[in-house]
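Try this one yourself first.
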């Protein structure tokens, strides 16, 4: 990924140089391109941190909107039991709640 990261950084440098001379539509286009490249660098960082690539991802699931009003999803460890009283909320401090549209990445 370092090769790709360096290509993007070089392109960002070019755009930075062009921005000082840009006007009108050209300025808007350069700003948009700069933002897109920064997003790519961010995604590359995420892929490296979490070891994500086409070979490591089994499935990506978007949590559905269950149309139950304002509801949140919680992550539960079922402790290998069907009895709900034995289940444990993984983030018991309630800092992690998930909403419709949030993604779950299932790795291979």
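Now uncover the answer:
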């Amino acid at each position: 990924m370092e090769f790709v990261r360096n290509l993007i950084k070089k392109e960002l440098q070019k755009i930075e140089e062009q921005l000082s001379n840009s006007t009108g539509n050209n300025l808007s286009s350069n700003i948009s391109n700069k933002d897109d490249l920064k997003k790519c660098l961010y995604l590359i960082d995420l892929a490296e941190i979490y070891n994500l690539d086409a070979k490591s991802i089994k499935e990506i699931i978007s949590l559905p909107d269950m149309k139950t009003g304002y509801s949140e999803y919680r992550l539960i460890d079922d402790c290998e039991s069907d009895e709900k009283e034995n289940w444990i909320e993984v983030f018991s401090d309630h800092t992690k709640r998930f909403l419709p549209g949030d993604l779950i990445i299932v790795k291979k």
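Discussion: The radius of gyration is 21 Å. Strands lie at 57-62, 76-77, 88-89, 103-107.
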